[in-house]
Amino acid sequence: MPEVYHKDPAGCQILSYDYNGFLVPSFPNVQENMDRLPDMPVRDDDVFLLGYFKAGCHWMWEISGMLLNGSAEYSSLSKDIAMMEYASQDQIDQLPSPRVLNNHLLLHHLPREIFTKKSKMIFMTRNPRDIAVSAYHHTFQLNSFYHYDGDWKGFFEMFLEGKLNYGNWFQYMLQWEKDIKDHPDLPILIVKYEDLKKDPVGNVAKVSKFLGLPKNDQLFKDIADKCSFSKMRVAKQEGDILRTSGESLYRKGVVGDWKNWFTVSQNERFQVECDKFDKQSTLFNTKY
Predict the structure, then answer these.
(1) Domain 3-280 is classified in which CATH homologous superfamily?
(2) How far is CA 201 from CA 67, 189, 259, in A?
(3) How far apart are CA 283 and CA 214, in angstroms?
(4) β-strands 120-125, 47-50: how paired?
(5) pTM higher than 0.90 for the full model?
(6) Quick one: which of 288, 274, 283 has its CA closest to 123?
(7) What is the mean pLDDT of residues 154-174?
(8) For residue range 203-250, what is the model confidence (pLDDT) as tens digits?
(9) Which three-class secondary structure string do you get for 217-258?
(10) Among 54, 172, 211, 247, which residue has the least CB neighbours within 10 Å?
């Protein structure tokens, strides 16, 4: 799989791998992992967690796992070994059922058996401005994967042009919208990050209902509390993988932090792309 180094205006590079025109992170054995996914066996109770990176998938992985296990306890496992483009087949095979398998891929990358087994899928969405800011910090901190030394100004240009892992957010979302509409028989629940922040208990209950689980109001409250950002940030430490000591992939978890980062000019340029997107999309939008 060829390495791709896209440069920002200052010459700082982001490392990606080109998988048949789709940019993926430089994970170990990522080509082998991607190649095997279409033929990967799917269990009847597998749940697939989808969405562009930094849309809240870590958060939903913990919530859905707690719901499936009927307990508001954090998983002792790392989400990485349930991440389909990162984990080996052996790691995924060893996960106990029911599995929540996370990925940031497109539908055609996923196991073919999801179409026959009608696997349940949860798709996370989030304000793309907040995604861009969160993606910057994620990419900068995980230097061993991305090798990016640039600043927000440079990263903004890369994000707008889609020259980073998982590609252009707007194109990614439009492709998923097409795939969802083309496969109305696939059970896909769309969850907005902002809705989950506004009403965590109600949205935990919505996910539980989608998964076909018993109604349990106390469990929903306990999970919402345990999965609050402040508690997860303390409980889910990343060790020494981040560039800056004391930083966390659970950075802020707030809605609207983009306002602290976007300049007026950046926001105006971003809005042009949002307007184009909103004219094409009926399922998603950028109005938050």
Answers:
(1) P-loop containing nucleotide triphosphate hydrolases (3.40.50.300)
(2) 12, 16, 27
(3) 29
(4) parallel
(5) yes
(6) 283
(7) 97
(8) 999 999 999 999 999 999 999 999 987 787 676 555 556 655 555 555
(9) HHHHHHHHHHCCHHHHHHHCCCCCCCCCCCCCCCCCCCCCHH
(10) 247
